[in-house]
Write a structure and sequence with these properties.
heterodimer, A: about 325 residues, mainly alpha, MetI-like fold, two-stranded antiparallel ribbon, 2 strands, globular, B: about 350 residues, alpha/beta, Rossmann fold, 4-stranded antiparallel sheet, about 30% helix, about 25% strand
């Protein structure tokens, strides 16, 4: 178990390093630099060249990369020209919001997906399964930004049940109960929108796994032991069917990042995704680079998490 | 003789294909006594596993008609709650493929523990563990304490089959159904497993239904033999009688297809054709007639019945009196039968 985790961690390190090189190189390919847009137009070309030299912009890319990496490792991603503050500080605020949104979304994804998948798989081809499967097809076919917009319009605008933007009611003292409740209220609609669409894969996956496991020989063994149906499902079928879902957990996080980009934009939720789109539109490159790197690291960590979870739940994967 | 342990009367197990039901087991009557091994032989698809599953109540969506009297009580179509009281306790089963019959995510010890716990939850856990280690020793698994915590994938096929046997005998069943217990194992392991089953049977004084298509296994293990073809029993006899004096054309064909060391045959006898599929089973007349076309149609009964030709020796259909093997040179014609 530990050996496996350590080995898996060792593989992740070069992955992250490679990712950072690619991101840095791509950022350098973008036209312009800090001295082309954001500068007093009266400054002479010689002075600009001097500043370039000072800022190290004339160095070969690998020297620049080394400097950038040295900063990044210490949490210094430079400064956002739009917000006039440290990228790390800016991003941190947003990450916290996105973290909560993702956490609540993940909760709903499994709170909705697991029971539906289990029912659907257990009573396959019965009416209840057909209804659930129908829902998953609709879910697969509906783009998340359309669904987000419609639910915002119906539940936020028309019915007025939920706030239509922001992450918290302004003017509340952080730490108070009202503040936390307000945060939750702002989270509910966007995370439900993400979960209702995002969970259909889990439902379908679990359904087919259960149908598959139901026909395995060891289920016959369990029945022949005299195990009641409930036990056969809980102890034998469900546990074996959940493996790929557990394995998918890490990748679910990556999917969530993609999902939240749209949803945050639609719900004007001040999270990472929202910041990401704004920064691209504003050409705020230091922020974009930092966010791409964080997202990428998130994906790698997600995959790592998946593998570790799988090695916990499936004894066949553990390395001796 | 006392009451038989298991008495199957006119059992008919049907499966639905599309709109209609097709019988995989058709009008089977059998008895198994205490401390007796009844072998059920037949080709794949002859309905022998379907018969065993009917007794265990393991069919999911089958229609079961007739009676299955276990110690005098009818257990056919028993509601699951009642069935689960005897399954795993008085009635247990050894499955064909040890590689797939164990839950891959559960330690071996816990899988044996489950069957104890289900039927004897009052026994404290420590006692159960003690007993499981004894059981593992009983089925000749080396280092039982270690194996207790191992997962199925860490054991060989033969070891896994021993674990399955340990599960089956954990509650000292009165009837043990072994569905091709050695088919998936290699020959040396086969002999060990068969020895083990026989020993356990003698220890527990239980009845055994041994399902197999291996006549060598039958000769080794069985007291009585029932030969199945196309869902029906075509011959029942004591093992000696069946091997020395087989009567039904199917039994004779089966026995003559065993290679013998002393005979220098150029080619083995084959039974022409294949077992018809469930949907295409002949429902009328002698079901084996299609596979011996050289025999005159008139010799078959219209509704073949089991005839007791000597005490305890039953044969279905009167055609057995007129059966003979075809000449070797008719081989070419018979190929046409296989293809048609």
């Amino acid at each position: 178990m530990w050996k496996f985790t350590v080995r898996r961690l060792l593989i992740s390190a070069p992955q992250i390093l490679l990712l950072s090189i690619i991101i840095f190189w791509l950022a350098k390919q973008m036209p312009g630099d800090a001295l082309t847009g954001l500068i007093d137009p009266n400054i002479s070309a010689e002075r600009k060249e001097e500043m370039r030299e000072q800022l190290g912009l004339n160095n070969p890319w690998y020297i620049q990369y080394k400097d950038w990496l040295a900063g990044a490792v210490q949490g210094d991603f430079g400064e956002s020209f739009r917000y006039k503050m440290d990228v790390s500080e800016l991003v941190w605020q947003r990450i916290v919001n996105t973290f909560w949104l993702s956490l609540v979304s993940v909760f709903f994804i499994y709170a909705i997906g697991l029971p539906l998948g289990i029912i659907s798989g257990r009573y396959n081809d019965k009416l209840i399964d057909q209804l659930i499967t129908g829902y998953t097809y609709i879910g697969f076919a509906t783009p998340i930004f359309i669904f987000g917009l419609v639910s915002l319009w119906v539940f936020g605008f028309m019915l007025g049940w939920f706030p239509t933007g922001g992450s918290v009611e302004p003017g509340l003292e952080p730490g108070t109960l009202e503040y936390i409740l307000s945060k939750l209220q702002h989270l509910l609609l966007p995370s439900l929108a993400i979960a209702l669409i995002g969970t259909v894969g889990t439902v379908q996956y679990l359904r087919s796994e259960i149908i598959d496991t139901k026909q395995k020989d060891f289920i016959l063994t369990a029945r022949a032991k005299g195990a009641p149906e409930r036990r056969v499902y809980n102890k034998h079928i469900f546990r074996n069917s959940i493996l790929p879902i557990a394995a998918f957990f890490g990748y679910e996080i990556v999917n969530l990042i993609n999902g939240t980009i749209f949803i945050e934009q639609i719900f004007a939720y001040p999270g990472m995704g929202n910041l990401f789109i704004e920064s691209i539109l504003q050409r705020d490159f230091s922020v974009v680079t930092a966010l791409v790197l964080i997202t990428g690291v998130g994906a790698i960590v997600g995959a790592l998490l998946s593998d570790i979870i799988l090695s916990i739940v499936d004894p066949r994967i553990r390395i001796k | 003789m006392s009451n038989p342990l298991l008495e199957i009367k006119n059992l008919k197990t049907s499966f639905r294909i599309g709109e209609e039901y097709y019988a995989a087991v058709d009008d089977v009557s059998l008895t198994v006594n205490e401390n007796e091994v009844l072998a059920i032989v037949g080709e794949s698809g002859s309905g022998k596993s379907a018969l065993a599953f009917s007794v265990m109540g393991l069919h999911n969506r089958a229609k079961i008609e007739g009676e299955i009297l276990f110690k005098g009580n009818d257990i056919a179509n028993l509601p699951p709650k009642k069935l689960n009281k005897i399954r795993g306790k008085e009635l247990s089963m050894i499955f064909q493929d040890p590689l797939t019959a164990l839950n891959p995510l559960m330690e071996v010890g816990r899988q044996i523990d489950e069957v104890l716990f289900l039927h004897n939850s009052k026994l404290p856990k420590a006692k159960r563990k003690e007993y499981i280690v004894e059981l593992l020793e009983r089925v000749e698994i080396p280092r039982p304490e270690h194996v207790y915590n191992q997962f199925p994938h860490e054991l060989s096929g033969g070891m896994r089959q021993r674990v399955i046997i340990a599960i089956a005998i954990a509650n000292q069943p009165e009837l043990l159904i072994a569905d091709e217990p050695t088919t998936a194992l290699d020959v040396t392991i086969q002999a060990q497993i068969l020895d083990l089953i026989r020993e356990l049977k003698n220890d527990l004084n239980s009845g055994v239904i041994l399902i197999t298509h291996d006549l060598g296994v039958v000769a080794e293990m069985a007291d009585r033999v029932a030969v199945m073809y196309a869902g029906q029993i075509v011959e029942v006899a004591d093992v000696d009688m069946l091997f020395n004096n087989p009567q039904h054309p199917y039994t004779r064909s089966l026995l003559s297809s065993i290679p013998l060391l002393e005979d220098e045959q150029d080619r083995l006898h084959v039974i022409h054709g294949i077992v018809p599929s469930l949907k295409n089973l002949p429902r009328e007349g002698c079901r084996f007639s299609a596979r011996m076309p050289w025999i005159d149609d008139d010799v078959h009964e219209e509704h073949p019945e089991l005839h007791e030709i000597s005490p305890g020796h039953f044969v279905r259909c009167t055609c057995y009196k007129h059966f003979y093997f075809p000449e070797e040179n008719k081989e070419d014609q018979s190929h046409d039968i296989t293809q048609s």
